[in-house]
Amino acid sequence: MEQLKGRLISKGKGEGEALVTTQPISFYGGVDPNTGVVIEKGHELQGQSVKGKILVFPTGKGSTVGSYTLYRMKKNGTAPAAIVNRECETVVAVGVIISEIPCVDKIDIAKIKTGSHVQVESGVVTLL
């Protein structure tokens, strides 16, 4: 069991299977809020669902509408269980806070592999 301590962005506890990408994610236009599936053409995670996963990515990108897309995903039940970033920028930060999705950044995301069982709580990422 390894613990990675980071900076708390949004409180709460999320646990589940990690889904990891080395590419930034845009929630507006990059993820379908009705299904939770990544739809951005050419993205590493294209065709995969973020629903209920611990979504691990370096940073967000794109329009501020992405914050509201995350909120819509939470309301639709298609949001990730938690988000882990190397650097959480404003769009993702606002989105996770208004949606009450646990989020932590300042994490060495290279230590987390897709399929790993991960828990996110109080700014700590635990690899189980």
Task: Summarize the helices and strands and which ones pair or pack.
Blueprint (H helix, E strand, L loop, with lengths): L1 E4 L1 E4 L2 E8 L33 E4 L7 H12 L5 E4 L4 H10 L3 E3 L11 E5 L2 E4 L1
Parallel strand pairs: 3-4, 4-5, 5-6
Antiparallel strand pairs: 1-8, 2-6, 3-7, 7-8
The chain-level mean pLDDT equals 97
Assess the beta-strand content as a share of residues: 25-35%
Strands, total number: 8
CATH topology tier name? Glucose Oxidase, domain 1
Fourth-level CATH superfamily? Phosphohistidine domain
Could you tell me how far the N terminus lies from the C terminus, measured between alpha carbons in angstroms?
Answer: 5 Å
Number of helices: 2
Number of domains: 1
Backbone shape = globular
Main sheet? 8 strands, mixed
Please explain how this structure is put together.
The protein is of the alpha/beta class. It has one domain (2-127): Glucose Oxidase, domain 1 (3-Layer(bba) Sandwich). It is 17% helix and 28% strand. The chain has two helices and eight strands, in the order ββββαβαβββ. The protein has helices at 65-76, 90-99, and strands at 2-5, 7-10, 13-20, 54-57, 82-85, 103-105, 117-121, 124-127. An eight-stranded mixed β-sheet has the order 1-8-7-3-4-5-6-2. Strand 7 (117-121) and strand 8 (124-127) form a beta hairpin. Helix 1 (65-76) runs parallel beside helix 2. The chain is globular and about 35 Å long. The termini are close together.
